[in-house]
Amino acid sequence: MGSVVAGDRLGQYGTHGGSALIVNHNVAKIANLVVDDNWPDNGQNTVCIQYDKYANVVFALQNNYFGRNQYDLGNGNKYAIRVYSASRSKITRLWTNRWEDNNQPMTEGRDTGVRFMAV
Predict the structure, then answer these.
(1) What are the residue boundaries of the structural domains of the chain, listed by start?
(2) For the segment 38-60, what is each residue's pLDDT rounded down to a tens digit?
(3) What is the DSSP string of 3-22?
């Protein structure tokens, strides 16, 4: 489960606050990062991939099984994997990630697992 805001009765998103994994290279370049064979679930953005002042984010996100307990931002709008920029993120093996409940591959879409916020 992702983190929650301490001291304020779990914050606006309840137990879905925060992320299980945030990737953002605002301090140094990200290199040789592999996230493999995990079971992330229950976040506002369960995996959140951002970018900042360094070059593109490059890493492998592979063979993970995701639960479906992400925060619903309304009308089934959920973020299991949220990628802030498709063009600034080079994520290898992204499509090897699956849903834990039915073993189906995650796809790009509003409620199907992978959300790209910008090109």
Answers:
(1) 14-116
(2) 999 888 889 998 887 777 788 89
(3) ---TTTTT-TTGGG-S-SEE
